[in-house]
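stuck on this fold:
=====
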Amino acid sequence: MGDRLLNGKRILLGITGGVAVYKAAALASRLTQAGALVDVVMTEAATRFVAPLTFEAVTRRRVYTDMFFLPSTSQPGADSGELQIPHISLAKAADLLIIAPATANTLAKLAHGLADNLLSALALACPAPVLIAPAMESHMWSHPATQANVAMLIERGATVVGPVSGHLASGAQGPGRMSEPEEIMESARLLLARAGDWRGRRVVVTAGGTREAIDPVRFISNRSSGKMGYALATAARDRGACVTLISAATTLPDPLGVETIHVESAEQMCQAVLSACTDADVLAMAAAVADYCPLTAAEHKIKKHDERLVLELRRTPDILMEVARLRTSSGSPRLVVGFAAETQDLLDQARAKLERKRLDLIVANDVGAPGSGFGVDTNQVTLLWADGTVEALPCLPKTEVAHIIWERVARLL
């Protein structure tokens, strides 16, 4: 299954001469696996490090190296009977131009509008967004000329990702390593999302399982991994929304291009949600919030003395009920999506929660079923609407479930 945002997109991948070219091969492969049509343009120096055949093998498309090569009418963007000029036809067909790695020499050419090879000429002719991933020796990167060139490119609208610090080809340690393919792909998604159907929308998503302190080293929590909430936040970002992710404990990295607010307890999450929802279009409450917390948390670590330890618990804030009151007074958020993670009587429990908390849509899943629920990458859910409509989905990757949820929410919006 391809990536919904990258699938079918035409990506121009410009590659310049540097040791990091090997990472560009991995990037080209991953973009292709995501469903993108990747046209690789290499400078002569780049071909000294990796042969064009490598990129033709991973993209299953020809690689362009010659400024003066005149292809047939099968060139991307060609109209029947027209002679296509590579730097014009490729540029016109592109949804995104990525230059990775970008050497100091190429950065200087781009900044000053030189067009002495196919890649630099193509960059001048390309109206699509431009993503640049520099890679070079630390002193070259920190040189005032390079920094001025990068600043000029950013001012003109280019997006620059990296470089990062680490071991360099010279044997030294420092800034200059090209960002990893995963980070470059996330930046590409962020740029492509600007044209999404949800641009201008504000979305709030909660994720993870809250932790309620017993003492400074112990807490009450649950098995939530946060994967469903993070998938929802990323999918909304990919549709062009402005996303705030309120995350309880999880090991997942913060999604690029998403405002992530980290909280620990149910009380902290409640405060963060109410603050973020004041002008939101949608709240998706995917977090597993503790229903109870210790009445008081011990100031110091509780020592092991007796055979039994009795904890007195109290109810935590009911965040969705607080949100319902907020909607009554302010009208925001416009729509609220709840989640019901159950182990029995799934649909009855979900319907009751849908009505009690005045939700527009609830996502019910049996967390005891194989391949569904906490800690796995798939989910099998049933969607229930306030009007009584029910839609059962098969077991799908959580990323796909997230996109389906937003498609259904879009109809309500």
